TrEMBL record:
<dbReference type="Pfam" id="PF13384">
    <property type="entry name" value="HTH_23"/>
</dbReference>
<dbReference type="Pfam" id="PF01498">
    <property type="entry name" value="HTH_Tnp_Tc3_2"/>
</dbReference>
<dbReference type="InterPro" id="IPR052338">
    <property type="entry name" value="Transposase_5"/>
</dbReference>
<feature type="domain" description="Transposase Tc1-like">
    <location>
        <begin position="66"/>
        <end position="134"/>
    </location>
</feature>
<feature type="domain" description="Tc1-like transposase DDE">
    <location>
        <begin position="145"/>
        <end position="294"/>
    </location>
</feature>
<dbReference type="Pfam" id="PF13358">
    <property type="entry name" value="DDE_3"/>
</dbReference>
<dbReference type="InterPro" id="IPR036397">
    <property type="entry name" value="RNaseH_sf"/>
</dbReference>
<dbReference type="GO" id="GO:0015074">
    <property type="term" value="P:DNA integration"/>
</dbReference>
<dbReference type="InterPro" id="IPR002492">
    <property type="entry name" value="Transposase_Tc1-like"/>
</dbReference>
<dbReference type="InterPro" id="IPR038717">
    <property type="entry name" value="Tc1-like_DDE_dom"/>
</dbReference>
<dbReference type="InterPro" id="IPR009057">
    <property type="entry name" value="Homeodomain-like_sf"/>
</dbReference>
<dbReference type="GO" id="GO:0003677">
    <property type="term" value="F:DNA binding"/>
</dbReference>
<protein>
    <recommendedName>
        <fullName>Transposase Tc1-like domain-containing protein</fullName>
    </recommendedName>
</protein>
<dbReference type="GO" id="GO:0006313">
    <property type="term" value="P:DNA transposition"/>
</dbReference>
<dbReference type="InterPro" id="IPR047655">
    <property type="entry name" value="Transpos_IS630-like"/>
</dbReference>
């Protein structure tokens, strides 16, 4: 097929005029007896910005204001569902792509919702009390703490559930978060970290009861603190789920100081941010088997720098102040 001949100035002017009247490229092509690709080429060539070539806007400021209300009230709806609601409430006839563009103009972006813990009044009161008791701890004080936790990694990272429409600064707003998440084939991992770097990583093969947990501490925690602290003092942080009497006796026998910790407080534990970093690193690798997933986790974990860990630990004073300001409620961390 030969090269298309350039359109005359007169034809280009007609294309622009018809476009300003609101005609689609297909209708313009039919009316002028030319191909749709020629219309598209002429429009692109004669304008530098999309907004100058988009023709008459199909929505008014009032329509856009109504869309903002709809989006705020239906944050977990898809673009198609929001389009249907918008057309129904305003009597407009806009497409899904128009709805998407207007949402972006209004500051909304489609994001995977953050997971926020459910806190009852008693838990919030204990969190607030704990934050005030430790509010004067400095970054240097927190550098003596070894943080620990378990996390679940799944093979199907792409299956993250429904997305949410939110604007900047709304990540942890009440209407923008989900309360729980279900996992496909996965592996549970225990890890620890301090301002000096990451510790030994343990892939848990069975339910973690008191005996199993103590074995994990003996095998993975003790070598970590010996390597990072030597003869220096440190404080160990753990989740309240591991509060069995035999575990307390184990700490007493080992002469290890354990930091009192408020229940249901992942936003206070810096290792949660570390898990998020590791998950982001391995997400694009798309493992298809558990052994491959484990290898990816171990590689990403070992690649975390001591500088990253130190930066996270230094955020502890800010985290406590955020809890105090929120009166014990969950925070953005």
């Amino acid at each position: 097929m030969g090269k298309q001949r350039d359109l005359s100035t007169g034809i280009v002017a007609q294309i622009q005029a018809l476009r300003q009247q609101g005609l689609t490229q297909t209708k313009i092509a039919e009316q002028l007896g030319i191909s749709q690709s020629s219309v598209c080429k002429a429009l692109k060539k004669n304008c530098s910005k999309r907004t100058n070539c988009s023709g008459v806007r199909k929505t008014s400021a009032r329509d856009n204001k109504q869309l903002r209300k709809i989006a705020v009230s239906n944050r977990f709806k898809s673009t198609s569902e929001l389009t249907d609601l918008w057309n129904k409430q305003t009597g407009a006839d806009v497409s899904r792509s128009t709805t998407y563009r207007r949402l972006r103009e209004l500051g909304f972006k489609s994001r995977v919702p953050a997971v926020k813990p459910m806190l009852n009044k008693k838990q919030m009161e204990k969190r607030l009390k704990w934050a005030k008791e430790h509010g004067e701890w400095t970054a240097e004080d927190w550098q003596k703490v070894v943080f620990s936790d378990e996390s679940r990694f799944c093979i199907s990272f792409g299956d993250q559930g429904p997305r949410v429409w939110r604007r900047g600064g709304e990540t942890y707003n009440h209407g923008c978060v989900k309360r729980s998440v279900k996992f496909p084939q996965s592996v549970m991992v225990w890890g620890c970290m301090s301002a000096r770097g990451v510790g030994k990583l343990c892939f848990l093969k069975k339910t973690v009861n008191a005996a199993v947990y103590q074995d994990v501490l003996e095998t993975f925690l003790i070598p970590t603190v010996e390597e990072q602290f030597g003869e220096e003092d440190f404080i160990f942080q753990q989740d309240l789920a591991h509060a069995a009497k035999s575990t307390k006796d184990w700490f007493t026998k080992k002469q290890l100081e354990v930091l009192a910790w408020p229940a249901n407080s992942p936003d206070l534990n810096v290792i949660e941010n570390l898990w998020a970093i590791v998950k982001r690193k391995i997400r694009d690798r798309k493992p298809t088997a558990l052994d491959q997933l484990k290898q990816n986790i171990a590689t990403a974990w070992e690649a975390v720098s001591a500088e990253t860990c130190d930066k996270l630990v230094k955020s502890m004073p800010r985290r406590l102040q955020a809890v105090i300001q929120a009166k014990g409620a969950a925070t953005k961390y």
